[in-house]
Amino acid sequence: MLDSFEILTTSGVVLWSKTYVPVGASLLNTFIRDVFIEDKTDRSGPNQSYRKDGQTFKWTTAKDLGLIFVAVYQSLLHISWIDKLLDNVRALFTELYKDQLSKPRTTKIDCPFDPYFERQIQDLEKTDATVAPSFRVTAPTDSAADLSAEDTAPSESERPLSRSFDISDPSRPASPAQHILTGKGGPRGSRRSRKAAAATINGLVQSSGDESSGKKKQALKGKKKRNWGADGYEDDGDDQQLDFSNPQEDGGSRANLEAVDSASWGTTTADGQFMLKDIGEEMNEILGAAQQKNADSKKATGVVGSSLGTIGGLFRNVVGGKTLTAADLDGPLKGMEDHLLKKNVAREAAVRLCETLQQDLVGTKTSNFTSIETTIRAAMDRALRKMLTPTTPLDLLHEIAATKGKRPYVISIVGVNGVGKSTNLSKICFFLLQNKLRVLIAAGDTFRSGAVEQLRVHVRNLQELTARQDAGAVDIYERGYGKDAAHIARDAVTYAASNNFDVVLIDTAGRRHNDSRLMSSLEKFAKLANPDKILMVGEALVGTDSVSQARNFDAAFGPGRRLDGFIISKCDTVGDMVGTLVSMVHATGIPVLFLGTGQHYNDLRVLRPETVVELLMRP
Amino acid sequence: MAWYDEDSFLTRSFGPSKFAIIITTLILICLPILTHFFFYRAKSPSSIPRFLVCGPSNSGKTAIVTNFERQTSTAQTHTSIEPTTILAVLPPSTRSSSARYRSLNDPQAQALQPLLLVDTPGHAKLRRHAFTALENSTSPLSGIIFVVDAANLSSERRDDESISGLSDSASYLHDILLALQKTSATRKKPLKLLVAANKMDVFTALPVSMVKGVLEGEIARTRETRARGLATDGAEEETDILGEDLGVKFRFDVLEEFGVEVEVIGGNVEGDELETEKWWDWVARLL
Predict the structure, then answer these.
(1) What phi and psi values does residue A430 have, to the nearest 5 degrees?
(2) Coiled coil: which residue ranges (chain B) (predicted)?
(3) Model confidence over A193-243: pLDDT tens digits?
(4) How far is CA B88 from CA B51, B91, B113, in A?
(5) A33 lies within 8 A of chain B by CB
């Protein structure tokens, strides 16, 4: 059964929620962060869902109004009607409170949505559980007599029905919900309240049962929520406003009550009996209208319709205010995809970026005097910038300062052959030395001939430079060739700890990312050396392969350990074709820490998302 | 009848007929009025003072904004994805500084003083919304409310976080202050920044004086490592340093030189007793 259902705005305010089993607020925050901000889940496909801590989240959005509808339930349960419920609730909610929702500069929405929601759940369960044994029990007659006390006496309906009023907004349109309340004052006991009472009784009678009946019980329990007191007020007296018929603050409610058009809340049958209009009828009307609209927008194939539509579309394309459809976006998005490919973004990343963009844009309106192309460019700009901005700003010096004196800070560098691991390592070393830190370089490449000698040359150069500049100190830890790199790394860390080094930089042998034999040794390496940061060097020159490089290295360190960042080398050789950056970050969600931009020790830069995005979007 | 005939509609419409004159006059009068309405109808009256609400994620920005709007209660909130602007009014119990000398019975003083609150998302990926609002020069801000979670200001990293609450808050505040320092030349009046220490109802919350102390200490460390850090790709100019002189110990007072006045005030918008009066007083002083 459902645990919780929430309707919230993109700005984070919960408009309406229904909780059966409390779901932690932090869990919902994690869901929002992972799905909407960090894009950790695959958002394509209609059956989007997100799982966390045994809960499944399903959601749908109303982009034009900035609403998110989230349903949470236990992952163990399989609820087939969740998608339908989300769609129906979206249609109902947006239709019922359209005026309030489109009002700018406010987060206050009066939405007595409970009855609609409960009715929806009921209906959907009914269609779902046609096979399950029916357990509906008719209410015993004596309980019906009890109920009559609960139904409002007509004389008391003269009192003002609601005390809480929103003064700031006297022009609020009368909500269709008014008849729910008015119905209570009617001469006959309302069908709904009796049903609710029956549900309560059912709940009592059904002390135990099979799973399906248990499900039902919980669904019906929702109906108990609103208790009507003897005087027509809500018993629990929460300030949810139900009466929308009365624009004045007080008084005059009687006149208003009399003015209610009887047709709006009920119908008179042929034999003069007054029937209350059912909430279900109204709901079905709204849902039907929404479906009709959907069908209409899909149909629109007539000759006149299409040509007029085209002209209007062309006009709107210039002036703006056009509601975007998938067909409008196809062409320009294809262009955008080609553009990204030309900038050396891997195809996989480009395609997925464009797909997400399409999902985000369909249903939104272009703003004034902007064409579709401009809108797409702006959206792509936003998406790229969001992607390249790291989730947590990393300040390496800050972190080293925190561990300084306690233990050495360990950074290891991995990557494919010939991407510039040793070169970038010495660049980082130079940067650390400038900050007066004591650095130990561990020669972990025990495989390629000349690798240790290469590092030794770097260390000699750096020692020379530091002696001249009165910077930190640097030394090399090497054990020749042929030894196990993981053990050398571990020994280097213990050596550094006993000799007061602040930072250990571990070089590793280059390895092909799709060679499982070579990659498997990385897991042991991560376990033994236990580096604070594992950085992967990728070269900006590589194209499509960057995605699988990043993925395989990210997965190589075993469960629970991931890469901490990328260093993109050789950025000076590609000009504005910086697509590799995007592909790697897109594949893993791991930020780029440094860019190698030249041959010198000081040619190391920090990534600025704005610069990269600008280079990418440059025609 | 061709279009150039004497009787054709074109000849008549260019001739000095009464009908043509009336139509032309109507167009002449209506066009500017209509244009005006078309362009300026949606635009807000710029006189409403604007406040920017920013701060790290999960510090309670949206909660504070909704509390300011509703005044008595706080809406349930989750992580924000988009910025939003809402219109709030000063509560009758608080008087704006511009209405200081008015008599209590002055009907003008009774009028509700409106203000706009710009709520921005606090997630690190979405912080640029706050900076765009900061740089928006068409309608300058009246003040900035930087919200911090007083109960999450330890330098120890929690398991579910990749950065400690303190360094996250401090580095964000550092960036905001640095952005303000850069634009200090364009301001005539000093800009006020309120550090709203939220969640004071929580047992583990730090007292206001300590909030100020730890933030100042952490910002000092942050600006030091930033000053020594690597150059950013594509940025030509020298790295700016908050307060400009690393030799001077960083305190919020240092920034008064750059037209930024920082004040730390505590409060809470959840729990048994809501404590927002001091924040309202701060807001009222700027109106």
Answers:
(1) -60, -45
(2) none
(3) 444 444 444 444 444 444 444 444 444 444 445 666 666 555 554 555 555
(4) 11, 9, 8
(5) yes
Q: Which fold has domain A396-617?
A: Rossmann fold (3.40.50)
Q: Is A469 on the interface with B (CB under 8 A)?
A: no
User: Over the stretch A557-609, which tens digit does the pLDDT of each residue have?
Assistant: 888 888 889 999 998 888 888 888 889 998 888 889 899 888 888 888 888 88
Question: Which residue is closest to B119 within chain A, CA to CA?
Answer: A11
The set of residues, in sequence order, having a beta carbon less than 8 Å from that of A590 and lying 6+ positions away, is A550, A554, A562, A563, A564, A565, A566, A584
User: At A566, which amino acid appears?
Assistant: F
Chain centre to alpha carbon of residue A356: 12
Residue B253 DSSP label = G
Q: Are A538 and A569 in contact (CB under 8 A)?
A: yes
- What is residue A428's predicted lDDT score, i.e. its pLDDT? 92
In terms of C-beta density within 10 A (0-12 exposed, 13-18 middle, 19 or more buried), how is residue A271 classed? exposed
d(CA A492, CA A481): 15
**Within an 8 Å CB–CB cutoff, is residue A10 touching chain B?**
yes
| Distance from the A401 Cα atom to the nearest Cα atom in chain B, whole angstroms | 9
Do the bridges between strand A592-596 and strand A473-477 make them parallel or antiparallel, or are there none, so unpaired?
unpaired
In chain B, residues with a C-beta closer than 8 Å to the C-beta of A107 are: 65-66, 69, 75, 84, 86
Indicate the helix (H) or strand (E) that contains B28. Answer: helix B18-40
Map out the domains of chain B with their CATH numbers. 9-40 (no CATH), 50-285 (3.40.50.300)
Chain A, 559 to 598: residues with Cβ < 8 Å from chain B are 571, 594-595, 597
Considering only A156-160, A449-453, B265-269, which range has the smallest mean pLDDT?
Answer: A156-160
Domains A310-388 and A396-617 agree in fold:
no
A40 touches chain B (CB under 8 A): no
d(C-alpha A382, C-alpha A568), whole Å: 22
| Domain spans in chain A, listed from the N-terminal domain onward | 2-111, 141-162+173-282, 310-388, 396-617
Nearest CA in chain A to B118: A105
Fold of A310-388: Four Helix Bundle (Hemerythrin (Met), subunit A) (1.20.120)
Q: What's the predicted TM-score (pTM) here? A: 0.75
What is the least distance, in Å, from the CA of B4 to any CA of chain A?
A: 32
Place of tokens 């925050």: A29
Tell me which CATH code domain A2-111 carries: 3.30.450.60
Token duo for residue A92: 């109902």
